[in-house]
Design brief:
Blueprint (H helix, E strand, L loop, with lengths): L19 H7 L5 H9 L8 E5 L5 H6 L5 E6 L2 H10 L6 E4 L12 E7 L7 H11 E14 L5 H13 L23 E16 H9 L10 H18 L3 E15 L1
Parallel strand pairs: 1-2, 1-4, 2-3, 4-5
Antiparallel strand pairs: 5-7, 6-7
Helix pairs in contact: 1-4, 1-7, 6-8, 7-8
């Protein structure tokens, strides 16, 4: 499904379905600390029903399944949902190809709604009332994010520069550690009860970092096949010059927990 938003990549269209195979192979990269921070908030645990909006290939439900919550995942991309189903075999997780603006669930169905790496894509004036309706009394909306830090990590900086060569208006570049921005409309019906931001290192091989970068919106989801092939050749040469066989990339993670009023 092609998506186009003037606030993202200068309005350049992208399609997560084009990158879904790379997402399945290379985007399950959150360190255990990322999940431990969620558990410390007593969220996504046994006895809770959790809706993961923008689930992609189901990374969050699959990795937190062992903590006992009942999970449902939705995503706008049917291809991402098919990958999620394949990767979740043996787990009782319901997956649905559905945009966040049109969730088909009954009111007060969930204790927690999670949104990981996807919050800025939503039409907030539409989804905020829907999230409020779907949560039980005292329910939580948990917004999660992780990104590399190009100003502190030279490999990340070099890879990012190459993405910008092929996608000059890509708006995923130049990240710094900062709190997740919560649009004001949410504060009408939710209270921000916790936010935290912290650095962490993510381990890669040259191939897994190459795949991670190819899966990004500025490459796999938006470039033509010919452009992707050219980017790949150049990126592999770059990594051969600057990166050892295995290495850590400095990232930061952020969390914002909102409670239903």
């Amino acid at each position: 499904m092609r998506i186009q938003d003037q606030n993202i990549d200068g309005g350049k269209a992208f399609d997560w379905g084009k990158a879904s195979a790379d997402y399945a192979a290379y985007r399950d990269i959150y360190p255990q600390e990322f999940y431990d921070r969620i558990l410390r908030r007593k969220l996504c645990v046994h006895g809770q029903r959790v809706l993961d909006v923008g689930t992609g290939t189901g990374v969050l439900p699959r990795n937190m399944y062992r903590y006992g919550a009942s999970w449902t995942g939705t995503d706008i991309s049917a291809e991402q949902i098919e990958q999620a189903k394949a990767l979740s075999r043996g787990m009782k997780i319901g997956y649905y190809a559905q945009p966040a603006e049109n969730l088909p669930f009954a009111p007060q169905s969930f204790d927690v709604i999670t949104a990981c790496q996807c919050f800025w894509y939503f039409q907030h004036e539409t989804v905020m009332p829907k999230f409020y309706e779907l949560l039980k009394a005292g329910g939580r909306l948990l917004v999660l994010y992780m990104a590399w830090l190009p100003f502190e990590d030279k490999i990340a900086a070099a890879s990012e520069k190459l993405v910008l060569k092929y996608s000059p208006k890509w708006s995923g570049a130049a990240e710094t550690m900062h709190p997740i921005a919560i649009p004001g409309c949410y504060l009408e019906r939710f209270e921000l009860v916790c936010h935290e931001e912290y650095p962490l290192k993510v381990h890669f091989t040259r191939q897994s970092w190459h795949g991670r970068m190819r899966a990004c919106r500025g490459v796999g989801a938006s470039l033509s096949k010919e452009e992707i092939s050219a980017w790949e050749a150049e990126h592999l040469r770059l990594l051969g010059d600057i990166a050892p066989a295995e290495f850590d990339i400095l990232h930061y993670a952020a969390m914002a927990e909102l409670a239903k009023k």
